[in-house]
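To: structure desk
From: M.T.
Subject: fold request, one chain
Message: Could you run this one when you get a chance? Sequence is below, nothing fancy, just the single chain.
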Amino acid sequence: MGMGILGLGGHVPPLVIDNAQVAEWTGVDESWIVERTGILERRYREPGTTTSDLALPAAREALAALPDAQDRLGLIIVATSTPDQPQPSTGAVLQNKLGLSDVPAFDVNAVCSGFLYGLAVADSMLSARPAGLGGDHALVVGSDIYSSLMNRDDRRTVSLFGDGAGAVLVGPVPEGYGILSWRLVAHGEHRDLVEVPAGGTRAPLDAEAREAGGHLFRMRGREVRDYALGVLPKVIGEALDQAGVRQDEVDRFILHQANTRLVEACCDELGLDPARVPLTAPHFGNTAAASIPLTLRAENERRPFRRGERLLLAGVGGGMTAGAAVVRWY
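Reply: Done. Structure tokens follow.
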């Protein structure tokens, strides 16, 4: 018996931020945004919307895939780096909004790799659970509101990010299906490539920190690109080897949508046919931990996954972190 993805859900807020708006904020030409990022628009939350608010409809959609999913749920994991508040976890808040008291719930923060980390944790915990105890399904949600962290004067970052949530229901599938393997890595020596410096115990979010912009997102884009193109092929190769699957046997590659140009560069680096690599970045931007599950859902709507189809999920995130998972669809 393996653990597989049984349900998909996704949600983006209705407010569209197009490149004309980003150009107005930053003073850069719209053509520069398209040329450098391949992103046409992104979604922003309405004022007052929280990360758990975005997660809720995505979670409900994923749970609706099985009539008794809520009764069989043994775990809720929310991958986010923009939680509702420092504590309690957004997972606990979501659990309450779903009316699922008693079900263990917590957060995972591996920035844009967070969903893959959460999926690996869910696979491990469910696989270790003794048979017959119930609670053999897990809800894994990636939800982020990066509009709350954007420096609207910084064309290099505000052009990239949007808000959204994606969710999967994980549960038992026949042997040979489901999550065949996963590989996670972290490289803390590169932690300053992607960061929000203030707001923790190292740099409290006081007036001085706000004045310096310490509460806003920072990224060293070229170095992040180099990290992604160096590390991603390695973790993908290791996950494929562990699963006993060749790269040319993978039907579709669901990559983190950092931006369209980086996804294209990853395809070139790996020698992938772009037709096997769906894109949501042009219309959603980089939705951080929501990116992979949102793209899974969008691709399944465009062309439903077939039983036995092999998928490769992979991405990188702040930390720096990276991960890959091989899934045989059931």
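Reply (cont.): The chain has a mean pLDDT of 97. Let me know if you need anything else for the meeting.
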